[in-house]
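input
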Amino acid sequence: MTTSQHPKPSLSRRTFLGAAVVGLGGTALAACSTGSTPNPRAHDVDVSAINAAEARRPHTGRTVTHALTPRRVQLDLGGPLVTSFAYDDGVPAQPIRANVGDELAITVRNEMGETTSVHWHGIAVRNDMDGAAPATPDITAGGSFTYRFSVPDSGTYWAHPHVGMQTDFGLYAPLIVDDPRERHDYDAEWIVVLDDWTDGVGRSPADILTSLQKNGMTMGGGMSMGGSSSGIGQSALLGGDAGDVAYPLYLVNGRIENAPTTFTARPGQRIRVRIINAGAETAFRVALGGHRMTVTHTDGFPIVPTDVDALLVGMSERYDVIVTAGDGIFPLVAAPEGKTGLARALLRTGSGATPATGSRPVEFDRQVGTVDTFVATSEVTMPPARIDTELSADLGGNMSEYSWTINGRTFDQMQPVMVDNGQRARMTFTNNTMMWHPMHLHGHTFQVRRPDGTPGPRKDTVIVRPMQRVTVDLAADNPGQWMLHCHNGYHQDAGMMTRLDYHV
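output
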């Protein structure tokens, strides 16, 4: 990706206490209150343009129906019993599946006792079905809403709420879009959903956010707000501090490390593993013991197949990999990057001893794939075109107040980034903070630019490390009002969100 480093900082991010992070131009970013609501009608939407974009999408004429019921339920995490929010009665919820061009009609019945929504992460849906206000109305307590949208691209996606700290509960469901024309050169499929967990075993997400905002970043090594005895560590892959929250539990497919789920296959089978990071504040390093992985897709879009030993997966990112199964029992391990703890599942193809808990596969210390490792295939590489507009998303924050900003403003005071329908836009994320941010744009994918300016992978979420720039190209071909935000749930709720709006 196109990146450039600021001069290496001589102070840790903790030394920024009491002052705003200073941007590239030397201007301090003001800390803004998040207590008010932005004007949702700052820019009107062009309904005819939204309908025209929908008409250009593929349509099979088939409708896939599904229902989700967000509510408070009791969950067995493999020993710990917790009462928390989830869709229906499980974590993760059952996968939603459709083919390219199908219409999805998903009815959400809100039994949570509070307002919620469902966002269809990574899918270029029509704007009024995005699941993020103001484009789509939130669903009030006791209400219901049916989301109807076509799915234009195959890949691994997922569904989650877009209201407050509901991102740090069990409200998530895989959403898989198949392309019947795609050659399936694998024998089995394994969906793997990663999560960091605190509700019911540690402090609630609301209490964690309140404590972060009240105390600021005053504890070296991070704030252990989830109930863990360990603080937050460092990660070279993430460029410094790993996060602000040490969680008491980490999960793979809803289970803790010592009570893993098991996927059964036969030796020699090729398995497509679809990895989804549904965590709110944790990146994971993922490896399958005894195996190399061939990475084939990221955020739904194909890449030139690339072999790695492990993967770094930030919040909301997805990676598809192919593994050729060995003979025995193997741990798929997800280590919270820079934090303490492990999560795992098992691949069983034969007899043998179950790998001991607490062990880290040797693959973790070999080649770790990151966004810099991968390149989109030619069929999904954006064709060369003139850049019509340059967009900026400068990431900042006030560390003592735990307030996070885009372009110097928290979300309640945001000014949307503006584009015209049909433009080719180049957006530069400039991270002026000492914390990494997984930046996500709704309704679009973008082409990450590599350091030499050549095209990298197509993605909808990209990690921006501390004091780094990342440049991406996007086609402004999906009119409406679209959220642009950090997918760290605590950063997002503390202000690091704006909108990409289309001129009418």
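quick obs: The helical segments are 47-56, 205-215, 489-493.
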